[in-house]
Design goal:
The protein is mostly helical. Helix content is about 70%, strand content about 0%. It is extended and about 95 Å long.
Length: about 600
């Protein structure tokens, strides 16, 4: 570990005359200079006195306002050159009791750096008792200073930290080491099982250094195996931002071609990689969308069509009028229709009212889609009244608003299911077939806030075909409403509706509630509900619960099967579980299988 005299001597040399001049102006007014020991008189590394320093931290913001932050820091370092660790730590603790401000935060960082230069381990121990947000800021400072003294010891300590703090600490260590990193450090990282993280951060640091001289080389380096996928996006964003500060035509082409080539190599099933590249393409296009669009059209590649789609999307949000003017120049080409439609759709998303007012400019086959997109975004902007009046207006003009009504309902139901339902059952902008179709998805959502009305509407608008109910009654609209109520745990509300259920759906209704009771682990209530039925209905009820019961709570199924009210119900469940087609026996013990076989033994025929 380097000696304190050497450290303070280096600092004083770097600070120079300007910092010393500032010391005389403002900082040393708070120091009792006559009684302070000199550097020659006291070995400060041995000093243990915790007597408070004659400094008033409450005045630091006022002092900082008189000068620049770096010069204030130099003056602070010089003033504390003979102070002990405990004295400086006490000064740091005083800053914690002051009102939070940028100046106090800056002072805290400077003091932690000084403390870490004296004793990084003690500094780390002191920092660890602070709030999490402060640790996130001060722990890296501590490790950075520690690394400048003894990087290998700093790495050993960092490797013991929690995952998130370990990354921050190792990044601070690697960033503080002068490249190239020594082989001893790399061997140590491997022995500590943090070599992957170290190599990743080395690549990050190298990338940042290369940004200043060669953004192209930095771009290529980000795609090395050492850079984690999660970190790639932020690094690439920084590279591109640097690259785009003053690009010439050649640099612009290199960036675009590099971007496209790397995208072509990505696994097509990697959804996160696709999102990352779209975000980065968005950043590139925003610099000069027209030039990027032209570059893509003029460069043959397998990705040409896909990139054109994304470029048109970004351009449509940024400047749709300019985009349409450029697109008009390629009318008749294979990319015209796709680009034209994409820009209008994006325009409808950012300026829905403008697009609706200028709908006559759009190709007729695209209008229904644009109306729907504009209406949906009006609702998302909390402009429901405008969305409703727009649907009425478009309907009166003879436009097809069926898709717009669907989009309206999907966006509005999340905010107010009751109001959405009220409008949908009364509007004359759609026919009854479409109304019933939309209500089929809306009514189960309404059940979350108004179960009684939802069930009444389900009876009115649900499929009344008795044969279809008998074929699979579980999926009727009424049962989906009941399922929605029971799944959220409102069993009393669900049971109240049993009194209004049609006779043809009664077993399905009881079974729907019973399945949710099993999901919540309310097995005694499952049994009590079944006892309200009788005969074949009761047997069918328990039989219908078997599959979910064995999947979700198999132990409780075998615990309670003997408590079922009738032998017929027990046998119905046993027959399903013993059916080899379902394979449930593979998960059962020999005793459980024997018990089930005993239950159905009197059903066997010689």
């Amino acid at each position: 570990m380097k000696s304190r005299p050497f450290f303070w001597g280096s600092i004083c040399g770097v600070g120079g005359g300007a910092a010393l001049g500032l010391i005389g102006l403002f900082l040393f007014a708070f120091i009792a200079s006559d009684d302070s020991p000199s550097l020659d008189e006291t070995d400060t590394s041995e000093t243990t006195s915790a007597d408070p320093l004659p400094l008033d931290v409450s005045k630091f913001p006022e002092d900082l306002a008189k000068t620049s932050l770096p010069l204030f820091k130099q003056a602070l370092i010089y003033s504390l050159r003979t102070a002990s660790f405990d004295q400086i730590l006490e000064l740091f603790n005083q800053t914690l009791s002051q009102p939070s401000s940028y100046y106090h935060q800056y002072t805290q960082r400077a003091l932690i750096e000084i403390l870490a230069s004296i004793d990084p381990i003690a500094t780390l121990n002191a920092v660890w008792f602070l709030s999490y947000s402060l640790r996130l800021e001060l722990v890296p400072i501590t490790y950075s200073e520690w690394a400048s003294q003894d990087p290998e010891e700093a790495l050993k300590s960092a490797a013991q930290q929690s995952i998130h703090m370990r990354r921050l600490a190792i990044r601070a260590i690697v960033s503080s080491i002068q490249a190239p990193v020594s082989s001893d450090f790399l061997e140590l990282s491997e022995s500590l099982a943090v070599d992957g993280l170290v190599n990743e951060i080395i690549a990050e640091v190298a990338t940042k250094d290369l940004m200043q001289t060669s953004p192209k080389a930095a771009f290529d380096l980000v795609f090395s195996d050492n850079v984690d996928d999660v970190r790639q996006e932020s690094l690439l964003s920084e590279v591109i931002e640097k690259w785009m500060l003053d690009p010439d035509d050649e640099d612009f082409s290199i960036l675009f071609n590099s971007f496209r080539d790397e995208y072509a190599q990505m696994d097509g099933t990697n959804s996160r990689a696709k999102l990352m590249f779209f975000n980065l393409l968005d950043q590139i296009v925003q610099v000069d969308p027209h030039r990027i669009w032209q570059l893509n059209l003029s460069t043959e590649s397998d990705l040409q069509s896909r990139l054109n789609f994304y470029i048109s999307m970004v351009w449509g949000r940024l400047d749709p009028q300019a985009a349409l003017q450029a697109i008009a120049e390629i009318e008749g080409s294979e990319y015209y229709e796709e680009s034209y439609q994409r820009v209008w759709r994006e325009w409808a998303a950012v300026e829905p009212i403008y697009v609706l007012q200028n709908l006559q400019q759009v190709q007729p086959e695209l209008r229904a889609d644009l109306i729907a997109t504009a209406v949906m975004n009006l609702v998302r902007q909390d402009n429901v009244d405008q969305a409703l009046s727009s649907i009425d207006q478009m309907h009166d003009q003879g436009e097809n608003v069926a898709r717009a009504v669907r989009f309206l309902v999907n966006a509005w139901v999340e905010r107010d299911a009751a109001a959405t339902t009220d409008w949908l059952v009364t509007t004359d902008t759609i026919n009854d077939t479409l109304r019933k179709d939309i209500l089929d998805g809306l009514i189960p959502v309404l059940a979350n806030t108004d179960p009684q009305r939802a069930y009444q509407l389900a009876v009115k608008y649900g499929d009344s075909d008795m044969l279809e109910r008998m074929f699979d009654p579980r999926f009727t609209l009424e049962m989906r409403v009941l399922d929605s109520i029971a799944k959220r745990g409102d069993f009393e509300g669900a049971k109240e509706l049993l009194q209004t259920v049609d006779g043809s759906l009664i077993v399905a209704a009881y079974s729907t509630i019973g399945v949710s009771l099993i999901m919540y682990g309310k097995i005694n209530e499952v049994l009590a509900l079944g006892e309200q039925l009788s005969g074949a209905d009761q047997t069918e009820y328990f039989e219908s619960l078997t599959i979910r019961w064995i999947q979700w709570r198999p132990d409780e199924l075998f615990e309670y099967i003997g408590s079922l009210p009738t032998l017929e119900s027990q046998q119905a469940i046993a027959l399903i579980l013993l059916d080899e087609r379902f394979g449930y026996q593979d998960e059962m013990s020999e005793d459980e299988i024997s018990y089930l076989e005993f239950l159905v033994s009197d059903l066997e025929t010689p």
